[in-house]
Design a protein that fits this description.
Oligomer: heterotrimer
Strand order of the largest sheet of chain B: 1-2-3-4-9
Strand order of the largest sheet of chain C: 1-4
CATH class of the largest domain in chain B: Mainly Beta
CATH superfamily of the largest domain in chain B: Rieske [2Fe-2S] iron-sulphur domain
CATH architecture of the largest domain in chain C: Up-down Bundle
Helix content of chain B: 25-40%
Chains: A mainly alpha (about 250), B alpha+beta (about 280), C mainly alpha (about 475)
CATH superfamily of the largest domain in chain C: Cytochrome Bc1 Complex, Chain C
Shape of chain C: globular
Structural class of chain B: alpha+beta
Distance between the termini of chain C: 69 Å
Largest interface: A-C, 60 and 75 residues
Distance between the termini of chain B: 57 Å
Number of domains of chain B: 2
Number of strands of chain C: 8
CATH topology of the largest domain in chain C: Cytochrome Bc1 Complex, Chain C
Radius of gyration of chain B: 33 Å
CATH architecture of the largest domain in chain B: 3-layer Sandwich
CATH topology of the largest domain in chain B: Rieske Iron-sulfur Protein
Order of helices and strands of chain C: HHEHEEHHHHHHEHHHEEHHHHEEHH
Order of helices and strands of chain B: HHHHEEEHEEEEEEEE
Helix content of chain C: 55-70%
Largest sheet of chain C: 2 strands, antiparallel
Largest sheet of chain B: 5 strands, antiparallel
Shape of chain B: elongated
Number of domains of chain C: 3
Chain lengths: ~250, ~280, ~475
């Protein structure tokens, strides 16, 4: 219950944040009209400072990218939010694989960065609105199994996909982050536009993924939801193991 | 030849003829009454033959009296006797060479007739493995039957497509991917079938036939979740890693005037893993 | 009184001598490792019990229906009747899920304990003349057990097992000359055909259980008739067998073991989730989940497929598919060699004698080395079969892991053979050598207050009696 409330609160904050970002951008656009370089908002100044300190080394001051990091032109707010909110960026070392972690910035700072990157590299995918309550579990399961399970695993617990890449577990991801990943295709993941996964599909997908995080283990221990590898290990080590201990205890040793 | 021997030979001969006829009847489409009657003749012939053989042609093998209780472990003499019994029995049957040949013939014919119902288990492969449901002009649709147009996919996206009317077809499934057009390195005769960076390949792995569920968009690689065969989408789905021996067959497509995507024909090669009839 | 009449009644009818007394008094050696086969037997009993229950509810049909059961994420989905009935067993039939999961765990433990039993028989040389037939039946039982497991695993018509069937179909397809015909006859046409599930069902609940029951009876009858091998106690001849009489002690122990086996399987069935087909979704031919592994007993086959090079042969305008060698020829060679092992070893050692003694692994360094190397080989293949899961947990690249495993597959078995051989030889030598006492050195105080070393040759010889004798002197 707490998790749901949390998710909803987070969702609300996202919606507000998007609204805020749009408002801020509008204000920025308005303020830029007479003299582009002056009268920046506080958020803009904060975003610029954060960008220059944490991002510009690899992505360049003009967001055009360097040998160490890709261009941010046209990546859009969804990508910036996804990378920062899931703690994948900034990387300590540009050669590291971006992996989920503790976000380095507060949500206010992330909003500032989104706004700033949006001002120097406009366009790209907006942060999607994901409403799990508008989704349908069965449709979500179908979308997930046909599009996502091939990499993330039927239980959404993640699997390695080759080339040193791992399709991560989806359990820690919020509905908005799920939506962002679907739309932008972070890392090696392909992107799914509204023509292949429409808004209803997306809402349903997120609803299903939130649902299986805490459900679907009617059979008992979920064993990491990795299937036969864990099951085989348990059968041999626990099942046969216990029985062999019983044999040792009851049978002759010599 | 004595009369009894003639009876046995006739019975076995009837059995052979019946079994062979049964075979022919079966191959020509079958008929329940004929099949039943011929099977009865083929089996009954062997039965009658063996019964008459035992009853009339082995009068010199007489009944014996034996103790009931079990005996001690076998001695060397016992073993010799066992071998002797076995061999003399075989010799007794082989002694009548014509009849024993007839018996072998009857067993063979029956075996042949008995084997052929296995044919009922499946249909002839014919050239069904070489063709799929794709025909020139077939519209590309998703598994739900939604037509795919040139605007469906953004660069870096993929979806699974089927020929319209055959949604979910196992052998016709194809994966449609959009890449940057100038990145495609297809041979000249195949580039026309991949307009505007839209390229379609069979979704069945050429290794063990699993559907290729993984698309690594950043490296433009299709990967199989079963045994990790990896195909380079830009380079004609050439296998670049893993046990798959062949590229994925390409499905040539075109953008029709109404913006929908249509197949130009069937796949460039038979789909899926290798089989004997494949060149 | 009733017992008396019963015993008399049976004896009067079965044999002139005392059939009951002879068999009730029969003794079985009770070394713990001799009971591994019983674990397999009782797992099989559990399979029959739970399987009978499941068969009352399972619908072996691929016909489409719309799911309307209680499992929310499937409601309204088009599924096959087979898949629907498995969800019904899991979520609606009372005690259905525990039965289903116990059945699946029992299948895994069945094959695992058969394998453990086979390993024990191998390392103790219990397959030697006159027990070759028991060994061959045992290997056949293992193959039948794997076949039973695979056909059962495929019945729910879920996405994961459908992928496994597709691989088997492709393997049959790869057989030269007759492959396509065989595949079409066995699978009822091009994969996936509507004939498949009913056929698998007949194999799973009729042909294979009947085969296993028949072979198991023969296997047990042979053990009963030939008597069990044993680690022979000192002072008894090889023609004798020392052990616990069947009635009542061995029987009670064995039945107790049966119930412990049932208990462990039931505990697993209730507490630990296995094959949650509702998460995998219904079979569709154009999707495959990941990780996609078969049950563990086929994991080594999966490993061969993942590691085998991408060789496809073209002869006289025909193709020999890539799968033919790794999926058909290699497993065929492995099981044939395994079944013929008693004859291979007897020929290599020119051994035509009859043996009733179980050997200690250390006494046969070469055989033990081969056995250990074989185990290492299979374990490595199973690791290869689960390489994507391993890579996820170990945080390494799958492709790197594959490369390492390919090398290890050739190196490790050789090393394991050498090490095992060396350890066995060493242990064997230590067992057969007389107990050697270390040279005895005494330090005696000398006049200057220091110590002198005194080596006592007589005491160093290791003659225990002599040493004890010395001690008695003041």
């Amino acid at each position: 219950m707490a998790a749901t409330a949390n998710t909803e609160a987070r969702l609300l904050s996202r919606v507000l944040r998007v609204g805020l970002a749009v408002a801020v951008l509008g204000q920025i656009a308005w303020s830029f009209r007479p003299e582009p370089s002056s009268a920046q908002s506080d958020q803009q100044i904060q975003g610029r400072a954060l960008y220059e300190a944490n991002c510009s080394t690899c992505h360049a001051l003009d967001a055009g990218g360097t040998v160490n990091g890709p261009s941010l032109l046209e990546v859009g707010p969804a990508a910036v939010d996804f990378m920062l909110a899931t703690g994948r960026m900034p990387l300590a070392n540009p050669n590291d694989q971006p992996e989920r972690g503790q976000p380095k910035f507060t949500s206010e700072q992330i909003d500032a960065l989104i706004a700033y990157v949006g001002s120097i590299a406009p366009g790209g995918e907006p942060i999607p609105t994901v409403d799990t309550s508008a989704g349908d579990l069965a449709l979500g399961a179908q979308v997930f199994l046909n599009n996502c399970a091939g990499c993330h695993g039927a239980g959404a617990s993640g699997d390695s996909v080759g080339g040193g890449q791992i399709a991560p577990s989806i359990y820690p991801a919020s509905p908005t982050e799920i939506g962002e990943a679907v739309r932008i295709g972070p890392g090696v993941m392909p992107r799914f536009g509204p023509e292949t996964i429409d808004q209803r599909d997306l809402d349903s997908l997120a609803a299903y993924l939130v649902w299986i995080r805490d459900n679907g283990d009617d059979g008992g221990l979920q064993l990491g939801r990795v299937g036969a590898v864990a099951e085989g290990l348990v059968a041999v080590v626990v099942g046969l193991g216990i029985l062999i201990v019983v044999l040792r205890l009851t049978g002759a040793k010599r | 030849m004595k009369r009894d021997e003639r009876v046995v030979a006739a019975a076995l001969g009837v059995s052979i003829l019946a079994a062979l006829t049964l075979f022919v009847v079966y191959v020509r489409g079958g008929n329940p009454q004929a099949e039943g009657a011929l099977l009865a003749l083929a089996l009954g012939g062997v039965g009658i033959g063996l019964l008459v053989w035992a009853k009339r042609l082995m009068p010199h093998i007489r009944d014996e009296t034996q103790p009931r209780s079990k005996t001690a472990p076998a001695t060397e003499a016992d073993r010799e006797a066992a071998v002797e019994t076995m061999e003399s029995g075989v010799e007794e049957i082989r002694r009548r060479r014509f009849l024993s040949r007839m018996l072998i013939g009857a067993a063979g014919a029956l075996g042949l007739a008995a084997l052929i119902p296995i044919r009922s288990l499946g249909r002839s492969p014919g050239d069904s493995l070489v063709h799929t449901k794709w025909t020139p002009g077939a519209r590309l649709v998703t598994a739900e039957g939604t037509p795919v147009t040139e605007s469906t996919l953004e660069t870096g996206s993929f979806t699974t497509v089927f020929p319209e009317g055959f949604e979910g077809s196992a052998d016709s499934q194809a994966v449609l991917i959009r890449v940057e057009p100038d990145q495609l390195q297809l041979p000249p005769d195949r580039i026309a079938g991949a307009p505007d960076g839209l390229v379609a390949y069979s979704k069945i792995c050429t290794h063990a036939g699993c559907p290729l569920g993984l698309y690594l968009a950043a490296t433009h690689e299709l990967r199989c979740p079963c045994h990790q065969s990896t195909f380079d989408v830009l380079d004609g789905a050439r296998p670049v890693y893993g046990p798959a021996p062949k590229p994925l067959p390409q499905l040539p497509i075109e953008i029709a005037d109404d913006g929908s995507l249509r197949a130009l024909g069937d796949f460039s090669d038979p789909v899926g893993p290798g089989f004997w009839e494949q060149a | 009184m009733i017992v008396r009449r019963l015993v008399d009644g049976v004896d009067e009818r079965l044999d002139g001598t005392s059939f009951i007394r002879r068999n009730l008094g029969k003794v079985f050696p009770d070394h713990w490792s001799f009971m591994l086969g019983e674990l397999a037997l009782y797992s099989f009993v559990m399979l029959l019990l739970t399987g009978t229950f499941l068969s009352l509810f399972f619908v072996a049909s691929p016909a489409e229906t719309v799911y309307r059961g209680p499992y929310a994420p499937m409601q309204g989905s088009e599924v096959s009747l087979a898949y629907e009935s498995v969800l019904r067993i899991s979520f609606e039939v009372r005690a259905g899920l525990v039965m289903r999961q116990t059945h699946h765990w029992a299948a895994l433990v069945f094959v695992a304990s058969m394998t453990a039993h086979l390993v024990r028989v191998f390392f103790t040389g219990a397959f030697r003349k006159p027990r070759e037939l028991s060994w061959i039946i045992g290997v056949t039982l293992l193959v039948a057990g794997i076949g039973g497991g695979f056909t059962g695993y495929s019945l729910p018509d879920d996405l994961l097992s459908g992928t496994g069937l597709r691989i088997i179909y492709s393997a049959v397809l790869s057989i030269p000359v007759v492959g396509t015909w065989l595949a079409y006859l066995f699978f009822g046409g091009e994969f996936p055909s509507a004939e498949l599930i009913p056929r698998l069902f007949v194999m799973h609940i009729l042909l294979i259980p009947a085969l296993i029951t028949g072979l198991l009876s023969a296997h047990l009858a042979l053990v009963w008739h030939q008597t069990h091998t044993q680690f022979r106690p000192k002072g008894t001849p090889e023609s004798s067998v020392t052990g616990t009489p069947v009635w009542p002690k061995f029987a009670l122990k064995s039945v107790g073991l049966a119930f412990i086996t049932f208990a462990v399987l039931a505990a697993l069935g209730g507490l630990s989730q296995i094959n949650p087909v509702w998460l995998y979704g219904p079979f569709v031919p154009y999707s495959a989940p990941s990780p996609a592994q078969p049950d563990f007993y086929a994991g080594w086959l999966e490993g061969i497929l993942r590691l085998w090079p991408n060789w496809e042969f073209h002869v006289f305008g025909h193709t020999i598919g890539e799968l033919f060698l790794p999926a058909v020829v290699i497993p065929g060679i492995i099981f044939t060699a395994l079944a013929l092992w008693p004859f291979i070893e007897a020929r290599a050692k020119h051994d035509t004698a009859v043996h009733h003694d179980a050997q200690r692994p250390r006494d046969e360094p070469v055989r033990s080395g081969i056995g250990a190397a074989g185990i290492a080989f299979f374990v490595l293949l199973m690791l290869a079969g689960s390489n994507d899961v391993l890579a996820k947990y170990l945080q390494v690249e799958v492709d790197t892991l594959n490369g390492v495993l390919k090398v290890l597959l050739f190196v490790v078995p050789v090393l394991v053979y050498a090490i095992t051989w060396w350890i066995c030889r060493d242990l064997h030598a230590r067992d057969s050598a007389p107990i050697a006492h270390p040279p005895r050195v005494e330090f005696r105080r000398n006049a200057e207050g220091g110590f002198d070393e005194h080596h006592d040759e007589a005491r160093s010889r290791g003659d225990v009696a002599a040493t004890q004798g010395d001690r008695e002197q003041p």
